[in-house]
Design a protein that fits this description.
110 residues, mainly alpha, 3 helices, 49% helix, 0% strand, flat
């Protein structure tokens, strides 16, 4: 019969205890939400904001006059093109390695 080291048994017990506590405790979202009473200052601020009328400019969307380099997608920028080239090279090398690693091992031991 083989005996394990004492720290292995302690580690297994600690992990079992941790897993038991993790899955036995109810989630915090399961409890009912408590109603938070409104503060007088928040109610006054909400009343003032409701009384304000937004201007017509608040609803207009501005369109940029010219498209800059920041408006392009990532893969159309030089860094994106470089990333695509590196990813393609990595995939190509992986395929090449897989096909050429299947040769038998030539070793004096085998």
């Amino acid at each position: 019969m083989r005996r394990s080291k004492p720290w292995v048994r302690a580690l297994v017990i600690a992990l079992a205890l941790l897993m038991g506590l993790t899955f036995s405790a109810p989630p915090t979202a399961a409890g009912e939400a408590k109603a938070v009473p409104a503060r007088p200052l928040a109610a006054a601020t909400a009343a003032k904001l409701a009384a304000l009328a937004p201007s017509a400019r608040a609803f207009t969307q501005e369109t940029p006059a010219s498209s800059s380099a920041e408006d392009r997608s990532f893969f159309r920028r030089p860094a994106g093109v470089a990333a695509l080239v590196l990813m393609a090279a990595g995939v190509g090398f992986a395929i090449y390695s897989i096909n050429h690693d299947r040769k038998p091992v030539k070793s004096p031991i085998r």
